[in-house]
Structure prediction request, 444 residues.
Amino acid sequence: MSNIKTEKRLNERSRKVTEGVARAPNRSMYYAMGYKESDFGKPMVGVANGHSTVTPCNSGLQKLADAAIAALESSGAKAQVFGTPTISDGIGMGTEGMKYSLVSREVIADSIEVCVNGLWQDGVVVIGGCDKNMPGGMMALARTNVPGIYVYGGTIKPGHYKGKELNIVSAFEAVGEFTAGRLSEEDLKGVEQHACPGSGSCGGMYTANTMSSSFEALGMSLPYSSTMANEDQEKVESAAQSARVLVEAIKKNIRPRDVITKKSIENAVSVIMAVGGSTNAVLHFLAIASAAEIDWTIDDFERIRKRVPVIADMKPSGTFLATDLHQAGGIPQIMKILLDGGLLHGDCLTITGETVAEVLKDVPAKPRSDQRVIRSLDNPIYPHGHLAILKGNISPEGCVAKITGLKNPSITGPARVFDSEDDAMAAILAQKIKAGDVVIIRYE
Prediction:
């Protein structure tokens, strides 16, 4: 979609007030949906609802949309609901369907922009759960620049089987164990059937939870909302509160580009480093910054990495899940530690109208002593961030490597080169890959 300049868009919106005669046919269509004359003086607020039954990440979103709609209506706004599509990386992975994943980010951003600008909406609540819902929604908020807020669908709770706690990666690992002859078919099925016990996004610090955490740090989602479980009532209540906060933001004319700035992106990336977030965050924040017309490059991630340590022991490279992080104090606790350490900009505005420092003023300076998820800055898991930007003859413009748990920064060995993911998978399952091999997959 074209990135219409903000000034032009604001001028167009101001004309909306003076076009009563021209809008008469438009009003007739609203009357058909039950609107009353008094409703036309209320803010028209879009609810971009990512609910679907194609993935557990999004299958629990309807109750959040319902809560947001009710809160908008009770706060004096009119809710206008529309849908956005979803492709699940967890389901598409290893198939040709995965090639639609990144494309879906652009489709999601476009679909939200089309409705918000095409229907002259005065604000928008974006509700999403799966990986590409997150950056796609934030890109749309930055493009349209009408007051908006992101409501994350929430994380999944851990599964359990034979006394072990499971998450989505447990299923991938079980396939490898079964192939290697170290797991029975019965236990493979047991892990497969219990790894994902209900609705919500993948439970570790994978892409969805990484992006939700960063959106909270960015100031575009409510405090504590990024680590709540989808199945818990507090997630529904947070969705309703998000809608109420948005109505106030509309009244105060707080817009996404007032919140999404270079300094707030630095805050978001600092939190990504601190929690051991996904490499995909690099790809997505380059796109979000571009949508917000902010000067941000791949080298900025390396700049942040060098000064921010990893202080949360999170899966996939660590021990804990997002539900554990939530119980330990959530993203506000992470942010408070970084703020006190001089690693966050406390003066950044948030969608609540408060600054980051004001939002965090009552958060304890130190994490609770009875938890093991969050560490202090003087006892980090890694002294520097884990998402390293590398450059060389293979990638002269830069690439990203996740270096958590890396014992040796230099890796050598025989190169096993494949021209597709399918070819590499076939070789792995046929046990043709040996310890010490370096697997290279081209053209993906």
